[in-house]
Structures are given as C-alpha cells and as structure tokens.
Amino acid sequence: MPSCIEWGEERHQECTLTRDEGYRSCSSWGWFSWLCIAWTWVSNVVCVVWTWVTTSFCVVWDIITTIINAILVTLESILGWLLSAIAFIFELLECIPVLGTFIRWIYNGLSFIAMTIASLPDALLGAAGVRPEKILRVCTVILRDEHGIPIASVDYAKTILQLAVDVYKRDANVRIVPLKAFKYSTGFSGAETVDNSWVITDSAVSDSSVLDVPCGASGVGDEWLLTGSKFQSKSGSHCLYGRWRNVTGYGAPVTCFIIRSIPGNSGCSLWITDYVTIVGENIVPPSNKRVLGHEVGHSCNLWHICVDEDRRNLMAIPRESDSCSNTEPDRANPSMTNWQAIRVRASKHVTYF
Ligand SMILES: [Zn+2]
Fold this sequence. Notes:
By secondary structure, the chain is an alpha/beta fold. The protein is 52% helix and 12% strand. It contains ten helices and nine strands. Strands 1, 2, 3, 4, 5, 6 and 9 form a seven-stranded mixed beta sheet that branches. The chain has a two-stranded parallel ribbon with strand order 7-8. The two termini are 21 Å apart. Zinc ion binds next to helix 9.
C-alpha cells in the first residue's frame, strides 16, 4: 500500500480515537455536555477533512514524482555517464590530499546550506503531515584486506542495508535505492528488497590506511591526508554513476565503505563527507544491525540522543551525557522520530528526483 495512504489511515484512526475520548469526557460536563459534544463533533470533522486533504495532496505528489522520475531516470541512465565522467575529472582534483579535501569540505558545506534552504517548504509540509516519497541513493563497497580477503560477506552488507531500507521507508517515507542506471521507483510500492547487485566488493587490496581508520578528531585528520584521498578515489571509481550528483550536491549518493576496524566504534560518519565507514562482520556483533542506518543518519543531519530518551531510537547511544545511563540501545529494531524524519528529508542526500 502506498505510504501516503497508510499514513492517512493512521491519522484517520487517531481522529476517531480523539473523538471517542472526547465524547466520553463530555459526561462530566453536566448541563453543558451538549456544548462539549458539539465541540468534539466539529473538531473531529476538521481532523478528518484535514487528513483527507493532506493524504490526497501526498498521493497526487507521488503520482507526479513517479512520472517525472520515469523520464529523468531514463535520461540520466543514458546521459548521466557523460555528466559523471565530466564530474570525475573535477573529482580528481578532490583526490589531492589537503587541497582536495579543502575543496570538498567547502563545496559540501555550501551545497548543504543551499539544499537545506531549498528543502524548507518541504520540511514545513512534512511537519504538517504531508510526506510524499523521497529517494536516498547508496553505494556499498566492501574492501579487501592486505591478503585480498574481503572484510565482510555480501550477506552481512545486505543485512545491514535491508534494515536501513526498512526503517527509512517506514518512519520517514524515504526510499533507499542502490546507485545504478535504469533504477525506476515509485511511492506506490513498498520498501526495496536488497539483493547482491547493491553490494560491490573492491577488486583491489587495501592497506591499513583505509582498513583501520579512527573516528572523531583523528579521523578528520586522516580525511585531510591520504586516507581521505583514497576513499575519494575508490568512491569515484566504484560509484561512478551519479558522480555529477556528488559534485553538484543534489541527491548526492552516500558511499558506505565496509572496513576492518574503527577503534572504539562500529561505524563512523564525519557528516560533511559523502562517505561513511562501517566495521565488517568479524568485529561488529550480529545484533548491531542498525550500524549502516545509523551512520547514514549522521550524514543526513541526525545526531546522537541519550539512550534513556528512547532505547529503540536509531541514534540512541549510552553515556551521551553525564546524566545518561549506560543501558545498551536496541540496535536490532531501530526507529526514527518525526523530528528526525523531517531532518533526514531535508538532507541534500534525500531528494524527490
Ligand atoms: Zn553515531
């Protein structure tokens, strides 16, 4: 069932629940209970009409984006390679340590600001309950160690991808799709099913500079030096399709590198980069299935919250502040709040086209 209609049905049920509760509370109004009943009746009508209007708007929008997407995806699939080849030449500049990182950070910062401003009307509509489907493109690359052995199995990558796909679709109406040509999508179908074609295993061997990368300040340091350049060039060669989006910032795909280790962490996102890193299956316990969705969440404007607020939240972590306990979050069944969904949808990585 289209998410717009599912959402509308939920709101409709909420209207009915509020109405029934309203009628029940009217009995305590004595002589004035008729006034309470009238008020409850009117607010229910308003609630139902509003739900109907927002749901219809959402469905119409989905129809329009489906048609426009069909045309644009076809055009991009035919001409996008040329655009991406031009973009790749520009990106070669970005592979230069320090200077390239400088260009990327300035560029990504500016495109973040521009895209966030452009998304404001959509965010307001989202807050009012109108959330037509948006798209988020990912490119997942498993690295090989010094001996040529892949860091993770394709099945592992598929498991963590599928969880992200399901959560983003269910809670934010964002369709995560693999980065490839002729990938048509419509808001009238359910979440994607991840298959082997979503995952690329690097053909070359890697060394410790990209296999074992710290997060935080030292990770930022590495990103400015050779490590950042290597990730940039791997991303450019494995995820060439759609590179023009990384250069322009519009619907920029997120590259998910599966690497060997991140001291003290199971994943890392520096937010400003178009890539995230995730530790392979040998170190991350199978219960931490949310890791990819969590790191992509950072790239899409989400920050941590304390686990005591909501154990299931995708971004919940223990010891976030002094007053936060060290309870472990539920990493197997994550969810996103409305406010987080609005922020994700305003991200430059998440677009209608
Ligand atoms: Zn995090």
